[in-house]
Amino acid sequence: MSSSVDEWLSHTLRHINDALPRRVERLSRLLEMDEPYVETVGGWKHFFNKKELQQIKEMLPATVAERLYLPFVFVKNHESEEPFYIIRERGSEAEAFRIIMGLAELPKTSGKPYTYKILVAEFLNRFPSLGVMGYI
Q1: Of 125, 82, 87, 83, which Cα lies nearest the Cα of 105?
Q2: 11-25 burial, b if ≥16 CB within 10 A, otherwise e?
Q3: What pTM did the predictor assign?
Q4: 81 class by beta-carbon count within 10 Å (0-12 exposed, 13-18 middle, 19+ buried)
Q5: How many other C-beta atoms lie within 10 A of the C-beta of residue 94?
Q6: Interatomic CA distance for residues 12 and 31, integer angstroms
Q7: Is 42 in contact with 101 (CB distance < 8 Å)?
Q8: Cα–Cα distance between 98 and 116 in angstroms, integer?
Q9: In the chain, domain spans
């Protein structure tokens, strides 16, 4: 019995982050594409809604939009009991999230910006194609 549970858990942990992007893409590049997408770690395509892309471009200052890579990647440390998600950054993702969600600032842990589960859920409810969640 324990062996099958261990196998299931091992399989699940190997594939839990399959939806994460293999590589993030600039907002400007995604807006140029007819069918904007990025490839995922699992080998699939994560498609973006062009209306959502245009909407956040209009919400953000040009300097932030120019440095924004998508999708937003919200990562939960499975060993942490805290209900927060790290916002992975390559460009201006944390600043863009802060502005879109109307926050004065984002807290940091070990120098990395984070947000709470409720805000991630609200963001994904408003912009379902623009974010993904993963675990480390």
Answers
A1: 87
A2: eeeeeebebbbeebb
A3: 0.88
A4: exposed
A5: 20
A6: 34
A7: no
A8: 12
A9: 2-135
Going by the DSSP 8-state scheme, the letter that residue 61 receives in this structure is -
Q: Look-up: residue for tokens 């912009």? A: 127
Tokens, residue 65: 């939009």
The pLDDT value recorded for residue 136 is 77
Residues of the chain with pLDDT under 50: none
Written as six digits, the tokens of 135 are: 């675990």
Please give the C-alpha separations between residue 65 and each of 26, 42, 95, 109, in angstroms, as whole numbers.
9, 28, 10, 24
Residue 36 falls in which region: left (phi positive, over 0), alpha (psi -120 to 50) or beta = beta
State pLDDT tens for residues 37-51: 999 999 999 999 999
